[in-house]
Write a structure and sequence with these properties.
Blueprint (H helix, E strand, L loop, with lengths): L1 H20 L2 E3 L8 E3 L4 E3 L8 E3 L1 H17 L14
Antiparallel strand pairs: 1-4, 2-3
C-alpha cells in the first residue's frame, strides 16, 4: 500500500512538473501535424486550429485554480453603499 501510494505521488509530481516546464502538448486529434486527412484532401485541425499543440489538462486545471484564487482574494475597489468614501 505504501509503495503504491509513493508511486502514485511520484507520478503526479512528475506530471505537475511536466505541466510547469512544458504546458503545451501535441494535439491528440491530428497527432501534432495540424492537419486532418479527409477523403477529398486535408483540412486544418478543428481542435488545435492548425497550431499542432494544445494546452495540457493539468495546466488548464492549474490556470483555472489560479484564476479562481485571484478572483477571490482581490480587494474591492468600490465602496459599499452607505460607507464614507474616506474609509
Amino acid at each position: 500500500m505504501l509503495l503504491t501510494s509513493a508511486a502514485l505521488l511520484a507520478a503526479l509530481a512528475g506530471y505537475a512538473a511536466l505541466c510547469v516546464i512544458s504546458p503545451f502538448g501535441p494535439c491528440r486529434k491530428c497527432s501534432g501535424t495540424g492537419l486532418r486527412e479527409l477523403r477529398k484532401g486535408s483540412k486544418l485541425c478543428r481542435r488545435c486550429h492548425g497550431q499542432r499543440r494544445r494546452l495540457r489538462l493539468g495546466r488548464r486545471a492549474l490556470n483555472s485554480s489560479r484564476r479562481t484564487h485571484a478572483a477571490g482574494t482581490t480587494r474591492r475597489t468600490t465602496t459599499p453603499k452607505g460607507a464614507a468614501p474616506w474609509h
